[in-house]
Amino acid sequence: MKKFRFHLHTYWKVYLRLFAAFFFSLILFSKLWHVYDLLAFSIMLFMLVFDLLKRNYPKTSFEALTYYLFWIIVFFSIILSTLLRYDYFKHPNDISFFHFPIKEVFIIKMIVFVVSFYRYKSIVVTKTFLSKLWLVIIFLHFTSILLNTTYGFEFLIFNLAIVSAIETLVIIFTEKRLLIYKSSILSFLWKH
């Protein structure tokens, strides 16, 4: 029992993220309740606030893996749910039926991830204020897709992803060791 408590105490963030991802997908695809979209939104909001707190940043590779896995599962669950909602699979030859411009953003973020992994040999990527802001904007975009609204966050997400990626790449190339969090590359301006 003592070993179980130690394991639970050590990996509670991992279990929380995995449980939230499973529950999110279950709610989204089962559609048992009339408010499934609001329940899925609530899980995303809870995990957003949880992930934005500095003490909950992934510090180990296992925590980072579940952090990325949660948001990837959310992304694919929302995309698949939306495709099912619009009967895309009945018209598979119509490529222009539903386009997700977010894939270019994930390619940009994946480049940062690969560079960081190559440099530090760790899947933990340095967090900055802009990357936290990007996470909030991506949450808003996922919410707009989930709730079937149109707010046009694609342009903002794309531009913020580029600026955030450039900032993170500058940090990766200038810092010799991996930093879990750095507020900005311009933080030297307000140091005394």
Instruction: Report the mean per-residue pLDDT as an integer.
Output: 80
| Count of runs of 4 or more consecutive helical residues | 7
Oligomer: single chain
Please indicate the count of domains: 1
Total beta strand runs: 0
Radius of gyration: 18 Å
Instruction: Please report which band the strand proportion falls in: under 5%, 5-15%, 15-25%, 25-35%, 35-45% or over 45%.
Output: under 5%
- The helix content is 55-70%
User: Which structural class is indicated by helix and strand composition?
Assistant: mainly alpha
Main sheet characteristics: none
Low-confidence stretches: none
Please state the overall shape, judged from the principal axes of the Cα atoms: globular
Description of the structure:
- This protein has helices at residues 2-10, 12-30, 36-52, 61-85, 102-120, 129-146, 154-174.
- It is mainly α and 192 residues long.
- It has one domain (2-89, 98-190).
- The longest helix has 25 residues, at 61-85.
- The model has no long low-confidence stretch (mean pLDDT 80).
Features:
192 residues, mainly alpha, 67% helix
SSE order and pairing:
Blueprint: H1 2-10, H2 12-30, H3 36-52, H4 61-85, H5 102-120, H6 129-146, H7 154-174
Summarize the structure.
The protein is mainly α. The protein has one domain (about 1-90, about 100-190).
